[in-house]
Amino acid sequence: MQDIKFSNVKITGGYWKTRQEINSNTTLRSVYDRFKETHRFDALKCEWKESEPNMPHIYWDSDVAKWIEGAVYIQNTKCDKYIEQIIEDAIDNIIENSDENGYFNSHFLVTDKDKKFCYRDCHELYCAGHLIEAAIAYYEITGKDRFLKAMCKYADYIEKVFKEQKSAAFTTPGHPEIELALMRLYMATGIKRYADLAKYFIDEHGKHPEESIYIKSVNENYNQDDMPISQRSTAQGHCVRALYLMCGAADVAAQYNDQALKKACERFFDNIVNKRMYITGGVGSSYIGESFTIDYDLPNRTAYAETCAAISLAMFANRMLVFGPESKYADIVEKTMYNGIMSGVSLDGKSFFYENPLEIDPDFNDVDTSTKHKLRFPITQRLEVFGCSCCPPNILRFVASVAGYFYGVDRDTVYIHQYVDSKAQTNTLRIEQKTEYPKDGKVTIICDTEKKYIALRIPGWCKKFSINREYVIKNGYAFIVADGHAEISVDFEMPVRFIAANRRVHSDAGRVAVMRGPVVYCAEGIDNGADIKSVLVDLNMPYELKDGEFPLPLIETYAYRPRQTNELYYEAGDDYEKIPLTLIPYHAFANRGQTEMQVWLLRKQ
Known about the structure:
Layout: E1 2-3, E2 9-11, H1 14-37, H2 40-43, H3 60-75, H4 81-97, H5 124-142, H6 146-164, H7 178-189, H8 192-204, H9 239-256, H10 259-275, H11 307-320, H12 327-340, E3 359-360, H13 391-400, E4 407-409, E5 413-416, E6 422-425, E7 429-435, E8 442-449, E9 453-457, E10 465-467, E11 472-474, E12 477-481, E13 485-492, E14 496-499, E15 511-516, E16 519-524, H14 525-528, E17 536-537, E18 543-546, E19 552-560, E20 576-582, E21 584-585, E22 597-598, E23 601-603
Parallel strand pairs: 5-9, 17-23
Antiparallel strand pairs: 1-4, 2-6, 3-22, 4-5, 6-7, 7-8, 8-13, 9-12, 10-13, 11-12, 14-15, 15-16, 15-23, 16-21, 16-22, 17-19, 18-19, 19-20
Helix pairs in contact: 1-3, 1-13, 3-4, 3-5, 3-13, 5-6, 5-7, 6-8, 7-8, 7-9, 8-9, 9-10, 9-11, 11-12
């Protein structure tokens, strides 16, 4: 199965149209301004000298590359001369300052000049991968190939150093990303050597225990170096590194029909979604190593759940669809789209979370009053830039290209993976969706195609639905005969649902989360008062929906209201009273100042 490229899809209404407008009108310039202020763009000029401030960091190029990629995507539908000039100037600097081999890295071109490809964890190949992705985007959207040619030369040099001469100090990247970028480069150019180089990196990964990561505080699990990828069964180590690596592995498995690698990707995916993923689609339980931990270890208040990790999970899940339609993959794309990714950006598009916890209690975030060492909790308000600022431009490019996740095609079928008010047009088909999803579950689909079938994903959360045409369910998709032209009406029932966690997830014992459709909800103190962690939810109590872009459930609950006493402990009694509890979409938390937040609520037995 192949995706229908986002450039062939226009979002015409609803949540994603609003988010794309904010992304192009606000986020694009806001991220650029912060990167300009922090000298990331100036670093591309390679003019820094010893003893000067603002030495280019080893990963700054990746930040700029992702911004360029997102900016180019936005230019596809909204041409902005100011932004265009920034893009062109940045590309000029990259091309002009690349060395005679095509190598570009703004750090190693101005300092440690004799240390190129000497340090495995210095992000050279990671930055190269993002530069390649930016060059492909620039080529595909503008038709100009000068950036692409420069990155092809760089990729040729990487092939020479790593595969042919083996003269680098290490065999595989310390931070994966080059693998998936090389596969994209192959698809953009048709040059098979780039796919072969990606396969080389994937095949060699985990086979060189002598090549340690240059971070002394971690072990071989941190970068998935403990075994070859084809033998993997679990998600280990740094989340983003692991998921970028598996994106490349999925691409290579599909290109080379590598069944062992494909099965490893399937095991890896299943381990994440069944045992190591938050209900929001966030992954990464610990800030130590920004990493996966063990099965069912999913603490809420200290959840790391990096924004980039949720994005990379969506990227990986979407790639798994290339092996054939399995709704569980598109379900995870949907879960991350509406929850764990978009919580990473403020509603106004200006500020960001690196970490996305599922619980906040500000009153107890600074309790170590007599010590300099403090317990660590995620920040409670978004920032406009971080020292390690990978997430803001990743959000930028994700939102700009989100339509690439909506549709797919294979030899005889058109697939509707995601339900969004949109239009898609290629040489052989036209699709239009009319819907307010996920505000409600009603979708009208109009499709003109030569394909034999139209396949509609039945969301995993949906228990009842109706379709006005005959259909056959296969792997979570409803297959409908197309007949050249089809008008299909679908209605997915979307009640408020209470979700429990596996009993091994001790952090959620006796608690429930609230969902409606794909959207996870949370309660904030600003709406509901203090101590919302003690609220009891009766699953049999009625609820109502307050109208809005995402209908807000208002649930009758029981609030802990102990008798007035100064005693720290006392005899328990009937200390609860009924109160209405207002819920908001999880992705919208922390937009109204610092306040308590809770996803998992106590369940009344």
